[in-house]
């Protein structure tokens, strides 16, 4: 109780007056989501992160956008967005990317399950099920560490926990086959045991960061932890409350949530190096979008105290909104990387838009509930 009271007091002190006097209207949230979704669709094949070629449609970067766009498609007043996703999926013949084990190349499967839930055609998820059946029949013997790997066959980096586990959870839900859950939880626990810092309640991006510091601080990458935090919500959505799987992921979620909220900066966003906002004060919207999604999701599901966490979500959403330019582009998205870096007003990426749309889907629910606030 004492810790809870202290945490509430700290949160109240850090909420700036420029945020507390503003209201979030659900209709405005929806408009902002539409602006970002429309801009990203028009610019879907643009070059990002200094690349010479556009991201492959089945690449993890686009997969994260599809996850967010699927969330918005369910809210939209038109089937336009589902049709766009279906066109992309049909062009790819509902297949996953090329590396058999690599979690990044499995992430696009989340879109196929969203389309299956919408249209009910099992052929949409058949190639995904076939790939995972093969993986489980031929489990990788590679170590969990990044210093000796072959195409990252295990979930050796924390980003992977957003990419592959939610797909396995979807498979378990649709097929009612617990084998997918058992495999997923076993692999997830291996990664957690390897990368989760039990003192800081955060994940290292990979083993190259364990035991290292910069500016006297442990290095916990914002987007990396955002991947994990958002992924936990996506996984829990697939399981019944009280099930073994749900309890496992809920416990981890509740370990991370207070730390995430505590580390929010005055501008409403999160520093790229979570414990070092002094040296990383610049805005960054991809990690921040995933954190906003995760915290709003927790309030909406009754797992987080509304009085404590709603001010954090409010401040975060208003901060994210300031990063949408007049054309609808979400700015200050850190380019592809694996560690804290740089972001600027002219930088964007498809996964940043995905994180924003995920966040908006839960922020909309939070403020659209007239009885909740």
UniProtKB/TrEMBL annotation:
Matches recorded under SUPFAM superfamilies: Six-hairpin glycosidases (SSF48208)
Pfam family, one: Glyco_hydro_88
Coiled-coil features, chain-numbered ranges: none
Keyword Hydrolase: yes
Keywords on record: Hydrolase, Plasmid
Highest taxon listed in the record's lineage: Bacteria
Family matches, as PANTHER family: UNSATURATED RHAMNOGALACTURONAN HYDROLASE (EUROFUNG) (PTHR33886:SF8)
UniProt name for this protein: Glycoside hydrolase family 88 protein
Source organism of this protein record: Persicobacter psychrovividus
């Amino acid at each position: 109780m004492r810790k809870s009271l202290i945490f509430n007091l700290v949160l109240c002190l850090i909420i700036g007056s420029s945020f507390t006097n503003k209201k979030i209207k659900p209709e405005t949230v929806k408009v902002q989501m539409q602006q970002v979704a429309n801009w990203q669709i028009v610019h879907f094949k643009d070059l990002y992160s200094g690349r010479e070629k556009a991201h492959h449609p089945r690449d993890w970067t686009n997969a994260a956008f599809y996850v967010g766009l699927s969330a918005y498609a369910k809210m939209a007043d038109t089937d336009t967005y589902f049709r766009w996703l279906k066109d992309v999926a049909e062009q790819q013949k509902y297949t996953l990317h090329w590396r058999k084990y690599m979690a990044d190349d499995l992430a696009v499967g989340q879109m196929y399950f969203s389309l299956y839930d919408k249209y009910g055609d099992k052929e949409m998820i058949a190639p995904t099920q076939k790939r995972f059946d093969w993986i489980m029949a031929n489990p990788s013997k590679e170590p969990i560490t990044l210093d000796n790997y072959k195409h990252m066959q295990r979930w050796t980096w924390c980003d992977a926990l957003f990419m592959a586990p939610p797909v396995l959870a979807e498979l378990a839900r649709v097929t009612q086959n617990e084998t997918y859950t058992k495999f997923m939880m076993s692999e997830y626990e291996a990664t957690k045991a390897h990368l989760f810092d039990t003192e800081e309640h955060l994940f290292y991006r990979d083993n190259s960061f364990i035991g290292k510091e910069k500016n006297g601080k442990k290095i916990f990458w914002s987007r990396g932890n955002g991947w994990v935090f958002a992924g936990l919500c996506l996984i829990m959505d697939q399981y019944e409350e009280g099930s073994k799987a749900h309890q496992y992921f809920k416990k981890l979620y509740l370990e991370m949530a207070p730390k995430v909220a505590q580390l929010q900066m005055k501008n409403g966003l999160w520093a790229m190096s979570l414990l070092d906002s002094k040296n990383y004060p610049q805005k960054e919207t991809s990690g921040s979008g995933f954190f906003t999604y995760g915290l709003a999701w927790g309030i909406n599901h009754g797992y987080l105290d509304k009085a404590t966490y709603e001010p954090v979500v409010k401040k975060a959403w208003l901060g994210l909104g300031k990063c949408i330019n007049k054309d609808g582009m979400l700015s200050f998205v850190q380019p592809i990387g694996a560690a804290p870096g740089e972001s600027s007003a002219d930088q964007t990426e498809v996964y940043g838009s995905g994180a924003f749309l995920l966040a908006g889907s839960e922020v909309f629910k939070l403020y659209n509930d007239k009885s909740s606030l």
